[in-house]
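hey
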């Protein structure tokens, strides 16, 4: 990899980390949330985008990542275009349902990737529970079918927390999680939610300012995913990393645990430090700067 063209880390906040922040009764406005995202050093945010979010993203100098959840091919172009109006650089897709057959899921994946390419907004299929990629067996079968049909690797969003819970894994996790490095290296979106085999989200901190024991057990996953991605030539590519801390509403966090947004900010800094260390190991300087928002 040329030292003058290293890949770039883009830290992406998911707006759901700011649900009910600072409380359900006093929740911040969208504009105040985006100002906080910018102040915290993030490069952008992700959401099911609309035109207003895109306008505010430009105002605050943030890029945007879109979101789609659908099992209906006839919806795909309209949903992509809606996110496109919000300035989406890429779109994260939760595709199908838990019981979507593999052959149908392959057709859905081909369709949404082709529609995204045609509209100029790349679509990435997320590994996620209650979708067609709920288990690693189905996810890898869909990826294999996509490659057989198109000659391409399936663009994916990696959230290993879902597989870890489905497979009831114990630390150190890695042997069961990184099965096909090529799919990781081909991808651009990574959701770094700390997990263990019983909980798809564990707290970053322990409530007293220290990193939690469970988070420390998860940290090798972060390092290995980044190292795996950087093991091939990624010059000039962007690595979109989301510290994916879910809120109490929705059930990912618990009311007694540290706040999701506060933990997400700490996790973002830890991701940035891991990225810097990984670049140093391969002799690349970091590359700064946000991508332009449309």
């Amino acid at each position: 990899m040329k030292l003058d063209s290293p890949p770039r880390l883009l830290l992406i906040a998911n707006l759901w980390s700011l649900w009910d922040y600072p409380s359900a009764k006093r929740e911040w406005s969208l504009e105040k949330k985006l100002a906080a995202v910018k102040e915290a050093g993030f490069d952008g945010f992700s959401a099911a985008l609309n035109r207003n979010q895109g306008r505010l993203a430009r105002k605050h100098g943030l890029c945007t990542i879109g979101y789609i959840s659908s099992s209906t091919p006839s919806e795909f172009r309209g949903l992509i275009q809606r996110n496109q109006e919000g300035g989406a650089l890429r779109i994260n897709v939760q595709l199908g349902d838990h019981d979507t057959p593999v052959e149908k899921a392959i057709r859905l994946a081909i369709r949404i990737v082709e529609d995204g390419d045609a509209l100029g907004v790349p679509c990435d299929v997320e590994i996620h529970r209650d979708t067609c990629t709920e288990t690693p067996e189905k996810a890898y079968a869909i990826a294999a079918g996509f490659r057989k049909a198109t000659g391409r690797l399936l663009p994916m969003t990696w959230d290993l927390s879902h597989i870890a819970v489905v497979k009831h894994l114990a630390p150190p996790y890695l042997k069961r999680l990184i099965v096909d490095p090529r799919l990781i290296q081909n991808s651009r979106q990574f959701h770094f939610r700390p997990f263990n085999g019983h909980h798809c989200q564990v707290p970053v901190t322990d409530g007293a300012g220290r990193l939690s024991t469970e988070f420390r057990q998860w940290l090798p996953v972060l390092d290995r995913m980044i190292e795996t991605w950087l093991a091939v030539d990624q010059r000039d590519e962007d690595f979109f990393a989301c510290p994916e801390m879910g809120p109490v509403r929705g059930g990912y966090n618990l009311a007694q645990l540290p706040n999701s947004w506060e933990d997400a900010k700490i996790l973002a800094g830890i991701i940035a430090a891991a990225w810097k260390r990984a670049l140093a190991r391969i002799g690349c300087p970091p590359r700064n700067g946000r991508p332009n928002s449309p």
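The longest strand covers residues 63-70. The chain has a mean pLDDT of 94.
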